[in-house]
Fold:
Amino acid sequence: MDGQDLPEQLYDVSDCETSPFERLLSAYRNKFVDTLPSSKYFQSRYGRHIIRRYRPNASKSDLLSGANVNFREFVIYLLKEGANTNEHWTPCTSALPSLHPQLHLRGAIRDDI
Structure:
């Protein structure tokens, strides 16, 4: 019996998430600033598109690598093309529509306490 088979009375549905602004900044840093192999994938997959569309007079090396996307370009990309283009920066609430009517508790994760 998995969690989906349990009657609703047996459990509470909850959600705990970070601030949307912290999530956005974290996604930017992790995918466009870090030098991890996964970051290189995002720079190639998304960074080249962002630079091509939102950076006038981009250098050839930036267009080829997708590296050096700045935060302003990233935000403009999200505003113009939608935050739902990738699950790493999609708002957490987008994953909850089917659970929302049953949500009993919602919390937030804070780093400052």
User: Anything to note?
Assistant: The chain has one domain: 12-109. The helical segments are 20-33, 37-54, 60-65, 71-81. The longest strand covers residues 103-109.
